[in-house]
Specification:
It contains twelve helices and no strands. By secondary structure, the chain is mainly alpha-helical. Helix 8 packs parallel to helix 10, helix 10 packs across helix 12 and helix 11 crosses helix 12. It is globular. About 5% of the residues have low confidence.
């Protein structure tokens, strides 16, 4: 059966792209959960660690006489468990759990006209936007690469980049639980699958290893140089790890294009936000979304973009 499906997708790429679009919609629904819950889970874990360290410190005589010892953080965590799976998603206004029929990507939001089925409170359009974006970008990626292991890898990278973009936009945070597996997955794909002529990923193991190291160390060097010159931190360590992940998947040769696209688009949008919206120049702006967008474009159109630049600059005739 799998062989028949593979043959169908190989002959009819539109069927493959359409199937990936539907899967992408469902994954987009899950990415909404990841974008919302993962930062909260990280904050709770950090607070629990701080409380454990505080409890491990020897109590003073005065504090020991004040009353009974508060419950351990582990007991509190068990009583208020919060993961990607639990508790069930609920309306933020009335706390009514969302029924499965009301959780169909995009369609449920349209059927409910963007409102909670129980209390009619408005539901942010961001949820269907993430679902639709994930579906469209996944289908676009599948169509571009065609049926095969390369498309599967590229679609998985696309999902990770969407999740990182949403989290960084909300919290200026790129979680290690996404960036580090993305680095290792790129290295493993290079070892197990190896390069395919004419496609951007995976690359040869040597290129992947150099790409991961160059991606991390280049931004690490820029970060410390900027801090020495200005006394400020221009980016976070999550940006280094994301750039390393892009290098692991696409090799070191693509990194200059990615950083140029990311820095250029970030500078242009930053100036527009200052001029049009009066954004504070000193306000921090996440760099991860620009890296993610530039990496996705380079993954699909890297060679074409490089060739176009060389022709426009006159370096290639």
């Amino acid at each position: 059966m799998f062989t028949d499906i593979a043959a169908l997708y190989a002959v009819y790429p539109a069927w493959f792209a359409g199937s990936v679009f539907v899967i992408g919609l469902m994954v987009g629904s899950f990415l909404n959960v990841v974008i919302y819950r993962l930062p909260i889970m990280m904050e709770r874990e950090w607070r629990a660690q701080v409380e454990e360290l505080s409890d491990a410190a020897p109590p003073s005589t005065s504090s020991a006489a004040e009353g009974p010892t508060p419950p351990a953080p582990a007991a509190v965590a068990r009583a208020d468990r919060f993961t990607l799976a639990t508790p069930r998603s609920a309306c933020p206004a009335c706390k009514t759990p969302i029924k499965p029929v009301h959780n169909i990507p995009v369609l449920s939001w349209l059927a409910l006209r963007g409102r909670c089925a129980a209390c009619r409170a408005p539901i942010s359009a961001r949820y269907p936007a993430v679902e639709l974006t994930t579906g469209l970008l996944s289908a676009w990626t599948a169509w571009h690469f065609g049926f095969g292991a390369t498309a599967c890898c590229a679609v998985a990278v696309t999902w990770a980049l969407i999740a990182l973009t949403g989290i960084d936009m909300d919290h200026q945070l790129l979680p290690d639980s996404i960036t580090l597996p993305l680095v290792w997955a790129g290295l493993l794909a290079a070892i197990t699958l190896g390069p395919t002529p004419g496609v951007a990923l995976p690359v040869a193991p040597k290129d992947a290893i150099i790409g991961a190291a160059a991606g991390y160390l280049s931004l690490w060097a820029v970060f410390h140089a900027f801090r020495l010159l200005t006394g400020k931190e221009g980016m976070g360590y999550g940006d280094f790890k994301l750039f390393a992940a892009l290098g692991a998947w696409m090799g070191w040769k693509i990194l200059p294009l990615v950083i140029l696209l990311a820095a250029g688009s970030g500078a242009v949008l930053g100036v527009l936000m200052i001029v049009l919206r009066g954004r504070d120049r000193a306000a921090p702006m996440p760099f991860g979304p620009y890296l993610a967008a530039a990496g996705w474009l380079a993954m699909l159109y890297g060679p074409q973009l490089v060739d176009g630049y060389l022709h426009l600059s006159g370096l290639r005739h």
